[in-house]
Amino acid sequence: MLTNVRAELVKQARRPANWLLLAVAAALTLAFGYLIPYAGLTGMASGTPAADSGLAAMLPEMFLGNAVGGLPIFAGALALIFGVLVAGSEYGWDTWKAVLAQRPARMSVYAAKLATLALGTMLGVLTLFACTATASAVIASAESQPLDWPGPLDLGFGIGAGWLMALMWASLGAALAITLRGVALPIGLGLVWLLAVQNLLATIAAPLLDWVASAQEWLPGPNAGALAYAAGARDTPGVSDIVEPGHATLVVAAYLLAFCAVGGWLLHRRDIA
């Protein structure tokens, strides 16, 4: 098992696409969490209420929310692409037979891929936290504001919530890749759901249909948004307090287990070719 995990980690670490996804996630989080708001803040009068609230959102006390605020939408989409690449590239390269000819069982290879997703998404979440913490410290120093950091419990909850959301989207990508046996179509369908359908349901269907509004409480995106809200994210697309944090945690964890189970069952039952 450890040999399979080590081989998968080496393979994924040598893929430039994975590092590009991580760089894009960090760049977008910094751009929409700090660079653009701070550029807008410099154009306001220093004493206006909007200037004070805008600056407060970028200080160290709020860096947890800025780190996880993108995970319900754009950072989650990048995690989904990561999951597709890890699980679906074997179909594109036609290397499943070569991998299994080395004697590991299908479930051992699949478990190694899930372990790689878990470690990769944890690396991504920690990178986002490091970037936002650094940016908030720089802004606080530039504006002569105190460095008031969140407590260890809040930090632990934020990292755990971010990792749970990222791993859920990555496992969805892996399940789609195994279901559709490829890379391009799973990425396309996953992004359509994550970036378009979820927003249409929330903004158009839910206000008109009660059953859609009720169903929102059990869909992965809104629950990821509620988890990000509980971690401190505010005024971000896809983030709201639609359900309680405990409810959101259980639903996101249930989807994570379901996506992993579906991918494993299909890989075990179907032909590789």
From TrEMBL:
Residues annotated as transmembrane: 20-39, 71-93, 114-140, 160-180, 187-209, 247-267
Query: Would I find Transmembrane among this entry's keywords?
Result: yes
The species this protein belongs to is: Lipingzhangella halophila
Q: Which UniProt keywords apply?
A: Membrane, Transmembrane, Transmembrane helix
Q: What is this protein called?
A: ABC-type transport system involved in multi-copper enzyme maturation permease subunit
